[in-house]
Known about the structure:
Elements: H1 3-20, E1 28-34, E2 41-50, E3 55-63, E4 87-92, E5 97-106, E6 111-118, H2 121-128, E7 131-135, E8 140-144, E9 148-154, E10 158-165, E11 168-177, E12 179-180, H3 199-208
Parallel strand pairs: 1-9
Antiparallel strand pairs: 1-4, 2-3, 2-5, 5-6, 6-12, 7-8, 9-10, 10-11
Protein name: DUF2931 family protein
Region (Disordered): 62-84
Pfam family, one: DUF2931
Amino acid sequence: MNKTLAAIAIALTLSNINSANATPPFEAWRLGFLAPNYMEVWIETADVVDIQGQVYRRAMSGNAAIQRPPNNSGNPKGWPESPGWGKGKYVTRADLPKKIYVRWQSLVEPQTYQMAIDIPESTREIMRKGEKTFCAADGKWITGYREALVVGLAPGGIAKVWVLGPCLSPIEVTRVKAEVDPRGPYEGQSGGKYDSLSDVSKAYVEKKGVPYGSW
């Protein structure tokens, strides 16, 4: 290899290292969860591992964001073209995410699932990258960042992940098929008993069923 090619190779290597170790342009990033209409979810735990190897237990737990339109008028098939931020929290004092572990109950089945979502470097690059965008909320042009990861959870153990930010459109980054947790709800500590399904969701499922295969 001649000196010019060697210099280029070294420069590219250093650039990649610096990019991978770059400080996030925001103080905290947000982890949110949503579910299709009526397809209620209870998140037992969502644990985060950041790129420094630090573990953040129960970064999120509880209900995922969901809509339950009356009179069975909602449509749970597929995912929204522009998903919202979901229900969640900011993961404070963490570097950008490397892996997210989730264990949740799909209440309409009912079934308990668990999975590990690997967050690729390409997603972290999206989160680091600022974009000029017009924010209608305050009528200003800003440099925005996609500082939120949103995970959609659906029956059958299907999960889809988007990255998005204030005034910036969501970008789909991965889809994961979870495995059934054979221990059942609460790691087997509830005697197989699941949390209750709401009357609205129960009525929908009894009449129209669960649209497996649409997610």
